[in-house]
Design a protein that fits this description.
Elements (H helix, E strand, L loop, with lengths): L2 H9 L6 H12 L5 H14 L3 H12 L15 E5 L7 H10 L5 E4 L10 H5 L11 H11 L1 E4 L7 H12 L6 H14 L4 E8 L8 H17 L3 E8 L7 E2 L1 H12 L5 H17 L6 H13 L2 H12 L18 E6 L4 E6 L1 H11 L15 E4 L6 E2 L4 E7 L6 H10 E4 L9 E5 L1
Helix pairs in contact: 1-3, 2-4, 4-9, 4-10, 5-11, 5-12, 5-14, 9-10, 12-13, 15-16
The structure holds uracil (URA).
Pfam family, one: PYNP_C
GO molecular function: 1,4-alpha-oligoglucan phosphorylase activity; thymidine phosphorylase activity
Keywords: Glycosyltransferase, Transferase
Length: about 425
Amino acid sequence: MNMYDIIIKKRDGHRNSDEELEFLITEYVKGNIPDYQISAWLMSVYFSGMEDAEAAKLTMLMASSGDMMDLSPIQGAKVDKHSSGGVGDKTTLILGPLVASCGLKVGKMSGRGLGHTGGTLDKLESIPGFQINISTDKFFDIVNDTGLAVVGQTGNLAPADKKFYALRDVTATVDSIPLIAGSIMSKKLAAGNDGIVLDVKCGKGAFMQNLKDAETLAKLMVEIGKHNGRNMSAVISNMDQPLGKKVGNSLEVEESIDTLRGNGPEDLTQLCIELGSEMLSLGNIGKDPEDRKRMLRENLNNGKALEKFREMIKAQGGDDKVVDDFSIMGKAKSIFDVKITKDGFVKGIDALSIGKAAMHLGAGRAKKEDDIDPVVGIELLKKTSDKIASGDVIAKIYHNQSELSQDIIDQILNAYNITSDNVEKPKLIYNIVR
Ligand code: URA
C-alpha cells in the first residue's frame, strides 16, 4: 500500500478503504508519511468529502491512535456534552452540576479557550484554588462521590487529531465537515463516555454559519458515534449573538452561578434545559422530555443544582465561598459604560466581534501561549429584539487598561445592528438530531 494511490483515489472522489485509512493513520502517527502527502489528502477530502461509514472508520482510527479512557470505575450512566464552540458559552459550568443533581454521572474533560471562543478550564480557574489537573484515581473518586468532575485532558488523547489539526490550520482545510466531525468525535470517543450530547452551534459566531451545514455536521457526528457504539444526540443552537449576557472568565462563572440559582438569562437557561434533557434521556433518567425538563427546572429553583456546583468546587480544591461572594475572584480595575446614540431595536449582535473584543481585553488568547486575565470581559445589557433609546448603556466593559482603547469600544458598538422596526426574539434551538 502506498500513500500516492490513496491520495489519487480520494482526489478522484472515491472512498478510501478501511485498510487504506488504517495505513494512513498508523504510518502518519509513526512519522512515516510526510506532511505534504497528508496535506494533499486533506485537500482531496475537502473537495471530495467522505461517506459516513468512511468518516466513522477514520474517526475511530484517530481515537485509537492514543489512549482510550476506561471510565468503567465510574458507576452508573456516563454522559458527556460537547459544544462546537461559541461566545459566552458557559453551558458546561451549569449543565454538569444540573444533570449530576438529577443522578447522572459527569466525568468531563474540557479544554482551554483559543481565539474568540472561551474555554471551560479557564473559566473554572478563575475560582481561587480550583484544580483542573488531578490524578485519574481522584477523578474517578470525585465523580463517584459527587457525580461530577471537570478536568483538563489526561493521557494522550487522539494524537492523530493533533497532528491533523496543525496541518489543517495551515493548509486551509479546517472547514471540511468530515474533518471537523472526525476531529471532534475522535476526542469524544477516546474520552470513553457511553452517551454524547453535541451542541452544534450555528451562526455568525460559530464554525457552521448556516443551518444546512450545521445539520450536515450534526447528522454526521451522530452517525459516527452510533457506528462506534455510543448513544448520541445533537442539538443545533443559534450562535448569531453571544449566549447569555456575560463574556469573560470570572464574569461567566458569575452568570453560571446566577443561572444555577434559577436567575439566569432566558437563552442560557433554555439551552441548558434542552441539552440537559437530552443528557438525561441518554442516561435513561426521567420518563419523557416533559418529565426531564420539569426535573431540571425544579433543581435550578430548589438549590440542588447550585449545591452540586459547590460540592464540585470543594472536591477540586476551589474556594466554594464564590457561590455567595463573587468578589473573591477579584474585580477589574475599571468599568466602562458603552452608550448607544440611536433609538430603535437590536436586530442582531455579531458574536464574533464581541468574542474578538473580549479577547483583545485579555479574556482570551490570540496564541496558545498567551496568558489570560480572568476578571476582564464584556456584559451585554441589551440583546437581540430589545428596545433601545439614545443614551442607553448597551454594554459594560470590565477592563484593566490604563486607558481603554477606542477600537474596543467601537468594535462593541459596531457589533450591534440597530433597526427602527420591531424585532422578534430569535429562535434559540433550530433542531435536534438523534
Ligand atoms: N473543534 C475541533 O476539535 N476540531 C475541529 O476541526 C473543529 C472544531
